[in-house]
Every structure is written in structure tokens, then in C-alpha cells.
Amino acid sequence: NPEFYRAQAMRLPVRNIPRIIACSEEHPNHISLPRGCLEDLLKLLSELKIKHKIKDERHCGVPLTAIFQGELRVEQKAAAVAILSDDIGVLSATTAFGKTVVASWLIAKRKVSTLILVHRRQLQDQWVARLKSFLDLPSNAIGKIGGGRKKPTGLVDVALIQSLVKKGEVDDLVSQYGHIIVDECHHLSAFSFEQVARKANARFVTGLSATVARKDGHHPIIWMQCGPVRYRVNAKEQAALRPFTHRVFVRPTAFVPLRAAPLDLRLQFNELYDELIKDTRRNSLICEEIIQAVHQGRFPVVLTERNEHLDNLANELSPHIPNLIMLRGGMRAKELTGAMNRLTSLPETESRVLLATGKFIGEGFDDARLDTLFLTLPISWRGTIAQYVGRLHRLHSLKQEVQVYDYADLNVPMLARMFNRRCKGYESLGYQILLPASAIPGWPAEVPLPSDPAWKADYAASVRRLVLDGVDGYLASLFVNVATKFSPDDEGERRARSATEAFLFRRLETLAQTKGLFRLNVELSIPFDGWGRMEVDLLSANTRIAIELDGPQHLGSADAYRRDRRKDMLLQQNGYTVLRFLTEDVGKSLDDVLDIILRSLAHHDQRRASQ
């Protein structure tokens, strides 16, 4: 059990955490293993040269005549065929991929009675609506179990999984179907849910999930009960196929906790949440940007993890937002129905804000008009990120860009680490992260960094090196100038080279190891190219190290190449060590450039000491 070892490593109590999670059962005459273990078991028996016989006692259900009334997209067809090729397996696909459509196609192809397991009434209603849309079945062929109803048809039924377990006993109804579909199958690791999966003896089992991996490390239980992942959808590729852009706007906050952090990390996290919820300045920043987004014609969903925070935000927003709709756990059926009806009845042109807890809306909520997410309390698990941003991915004719506003509390080490993990989650889903300079601790806030993804990919490492060594506003400005490509209408290559020289000189002057060692554009009394002197870009006279920076003009012709080689030879003949760098590498590979210079200086010191 990964949770046991994680708690043990953090010196937390492990009294109620099992070290081993066993999914097998021992009986007087046999051992029960989960269905997903069959392939590995057969492989093991083969390796050990143990003969075996298979007696198939799975239930094939009753015949079902259903015609699929839709058309699968290319990627949906590939997923459907992959799942159909095996009796059991999991489809891991992003939100808005169309897993329900693929499942409907599988029901029509397998032609046996099917039980669909969900964990929320909202999902149950959605499934019934989608099945009626995609399958040519009599309206009375689709039944509901749970949520105050128990009207199974025995053909295609949608059941709330928790309604099938009473006092630890699973309803015998589960074993009467030939095909089991487990929606959001990552919840199967919950014991009562796993009990239902064990009881089912259907021939076909299909798991559906956008986030198969679990934060607690219990996802192997999913594979044991539903089979391995047969088809996995690449989230970045899916993002590229959507007709809108995906952006994250990072909003650094000034939050600093008032109380000292307790040693227990769980208490520390809970106390931080309590302070974040009550931080009026932080809440005001969030509400101002929500109001601004509404004025821009966007339809935001505002997610928080606590009901108290939900109320605080609602109180601040309600005077400015006429259509503020709240959704949270624990709502009565009448309240929930009223809120949903109000949401769906609003005209497209009418502004609105959906305010909800993440646990309530993170799975199974669909409104294609949503285009903006405000993440108001920190989370870190990439699976949760995928669920939350997935609310924005439904296609809509007016949707051109989906936006996420992430409020990053970078002054608190724990919350800063959570932000870094969120960034990895966003990037894995195909989002472009727009990171203001103030979101990089140590970087001068007055010097903005370009937000272009290509620029960030090229220069991120150099920015980190600058921050590590220390950087002031002037040096930061020089660096951004170096790392910016100028158009031919500006001063062209000469300007870029001059900026590079100025930046590198300034960096060397502000490092303790190199301060005062180098001069810029020094003339030496070495005859060169018809002149009685030679100029080098940077020179350390004491260590006799010459640094040359080559812009595009140095690489444009064979004559330029020969000229530089002659210069290097003359410098070496006069006892100088020559370090030559491309101007673009000073920006993109500052780590390497500085390390080479520092190693050369260290080598000089060693040589002088030995003499």
C-alpha cells in the first residue's frame, strides 16, 4: 500500500493504514483472484511449465438488439475497436473525448444485457439521456437503479454503485448482466465499489476514466477488476485537435500565513487552507477578475474546495453578478433541480457565473458554454487538474479560447511546490502557461518576461541560472534584450551582438568569481588583417583569457570563418586562451557558457599554482 510507506516516510501514524492491500480471497477449496490477473497468471503458469485448464463460468446475460445511431470520429473508432478486441479492459480518455459515445457503440456491438455503474445521480441522468440519443432502443428498455428508484429492465440499466451494497452485501442483481461498464472507474478502489465489481460475473467488463492513475497509488485495483488499459488517449494531441486555444493565466498572490507552520504536514495544510479562505485581499483579487471576465463576455466556473470559501466568494460577487448559480454537495434534490433549471434556461447572451465546490462539479458536470475556470484554492494532483479543466473542453460554436486563472501562493514553500506540480498537469493537457515575471521568485518584478512558449522553452534554463546567481533589474533587462530577436528594420545583427556583449559583461561583473576580471572591447597590440592592432570582445588580462562572441555575421561565409580562425591562432600564439561562443547560446545556454568560463579560470589558477 503506497499510502502506508508514504506516511511512514513522513513519520506519520500508520496504525489504521494497512501495509498490504489484498484483492484475492481464500476459500476452503480454492483461491479467488480478480479477473484482471488472468493474463499474468497464465503467463506465470507457462513460465513454470504448469499445465492448466480453463472453465469459463462467466455470465453472458440475455441477448440485446440495439442499433448505434451515431457516427464515431476517427480517434473514437480506434478506441472502440481496441476495447472490443478483448473481453475486459479500460479506456483512458480525456474529458469531452466521447467515452459515453464509445460505450454506446460497444453495447450495440456486444449485443448482451448491460449494467452501467456510476457514482453520482447527475451522471446517471446523463447516461440515460445519452443512451436514448445514441441507441435505437424502446424507451422502456433503459432502467434506473438508485437515487430513490429501482426499476431495472434487465436489458440496459444505469445504477448508482453505492445503492447496490446494503450492510456489506451486494445485490444479486449485479450478476445477471453480460456486460458491465464502470464509469469513472478510478473510484473502484473504494472498498464498497470493489465489492460490486467482484460480485459481477459478466463476460465483458469495460472501465472508463479520464484519470486512471490515483494519487493514493491504488490504481492497480482498477486494472485487477476492469482489466488493463487497452487504449489511452494522448491529452496533448486531443488539445491540438480542438478548435480553440488552451491558456493558463498565473496570478501570483501576496499571501503569507500569519501563524507558524506546525510540524504535522496535514495540520499545516489545513491551517493554510483556513487562512487562505479568510484572506480578504486574496478573495478581492479573485472576485475582481471574475467580474472582469464576465464583462468580457466569458462564462466562468469558479471552483473552491471548501463551502466556507464558496460563501465568502458568493457574498462578494452577488452585488455585481445578477446570475450567480451555486452548486455544492449536500444540496437537496429540489435545490439542485432549481439551480440546474435556472442555469439551462438562461439565454446565451445573458452573463452568468457558476460557483461550485470542486468535488461536486469535477466529474460528470456538462455545460458546453463554460470557457473559463477560476481555481481559487491550491491543489496539486494532476488527475484533479484534468477533471477540473475538462469542464471547459466541450465543443461550442462560440468557444475560441478556454482560460484557466490559477492563483499561485508562491511565498509559502508548500503551496509553491503544489503550484509547480499543477504546472506539469497543465502542460500534460496541452495548455500554454502564461507566467508573469513576478511568479518566478528572485526575478525582478519590473522586468516582464516574454510569454511566447518557444521563448520559454529556449530560455527557461538561463532564467533559472540568473536567479540562482542573483539578478538585478538592469541585468535582467539586458538579458531580455539579448534573448529577443530583432527585425531587420532595427539595427539588425550588430544590435543583437552589442546587447549580448553588454549582458555577458554585466553578468561577469556581478558574479563574485569574475568581478573585475574582464574588460569589454579591448585592443591588443597584435597586428591583424592589415591593422596594427586586434580587438577582442572581452578580455581578462591577468588570466590571459579572451572571449569572442559570434553573431550570424561570423557564420555567413567561408571568408568570415577563415578570419576568425586566423584571429584565434594569433591569440593562442601570443599566450591567450580563446573562448568563442555563439551569441544565441549566451541567451539560450547561459549555464554552459558560464561554466566554461569558470572552468577556464579555475584551470588557470591551478596552472599558476603548480608553477
Give a structural overview.
By secondary structure, the protein is of the alpha/beta class. Helix content is 41%, strand content 18%. It has 21 helices and 25 strands. It has an eight-stranded mixed sheet, with helices on both faces. α4 (99-110) crosses α5. The longest helix is centred in the last third of the chain and has 21 residues, at 590-610.
Class from helix and strand fractions: alpha/beta
Strand line-up across the major sheet: 8-7-9-5-12-13-4-14
Quote the distance from N terminus to C terminus: 62 Å
- Overall outline: elongated
> What's the average pLDDT?
87
| pLDDT < 50 runs, ≥5 residues | 486-497
Largest sheet: 8 strands, mixed
Helical stretch count? 21
Q: What is the helix content? A: 40-55%
Percentage of residues in DSSP E strands: 15-25%
CA-atom Rg in angstroms: 32 Å
Question: How many strands appear in the DSSP assignment?
Answer: 25
List the helices and strands and how they pair.
Layout: H1 2-9, E1 25-26, E2 31-32, H2 38-47, E3 67-68, H3 74-84, E4 88-92, H4 99-110, E5 114-118, H5 121-134, E6 135-136, E7 142-145, E8 150-151, E9 156-160, E10 165-166, E11 169-170, E12 179-182, H6 191-199, E13 204-209, H7 220-226, E14 229-232, H8 235-241, E15 245-252, H9 265-278, H10 280-295, E16 300-304, H11 307-317, E17 324-327, H12 333-345, E18 353-357, H13 358-361, E19 372-375, H14 382-389, E20 401-408, H15 413-428, E21 432-434, H16 453-469, H17 473-482, H18 492-509, E22 519-524, E23 534-540, E24 545-550, H19 558-573, E25 577-582, H20 583-588, H21 590-610
Parallel strand pairs: 4-13, 4-14, 5-9, 5-12, 7-9, 12-13, 15-20, 15-21, 16-18, 16-19, 17-18, 19-20, 24-25
Antiparallel strand pairs: 1-2, 3-6, 7-8, 10-11, 22-23, 23-24
